[in-house]
Specification:
Length: 108
């Protein structure tokens, strides 16, 4: 069953398998991404982060649940691919600003 996602988050997951710049366009200009204990600030850094992770491994990602935590929206997604520990369910904690993502934290 498909999960109904807010538009900015749906765009993020749709762009996930494309170019890093396409993913970065889902964020505000000063957005922050925290993934694997590393912080990436701004669209340029986010595009670089996504390009590096996308070329390092091949994977698919499927959102399977959505919850609210205060002002954040937490999407649980199932990832499967050519990375150590595959498959795994990760939690994507999004904070939105208007029609874009202002912050994203990814954790198991």
């Amino acid at each position: 069953m498909a999960v109904s996602l807010p538009a900015p988050i749906a765009r993020y997951f749709a762009a996930d398998g494309t170019r890093g710049a396409d993913v970065a366009d889902c964020f505000t200009s000063d957005a922050v991404v925290v993934d694997e204990r590393r912080t990436h600030r701004g669209r340029e850094a986010i595009a670089r982060w996504k390009s590096e992770t996308s070329t390092q491994y091949q994977y698919t990602v499927e959102p399977i649940a959505i919850d609210a935590e205060g002002e954040a929206i937490v999407v649980t997604a199932h990832l499967a691919g050519t990375f150590p520990g595959s498959p795994i369910d990760l939690r994507y904690r999004f904070t939105l600003a208007d029609d874009a993502i202002a912050r994203l934290e990814i954790a198991p």
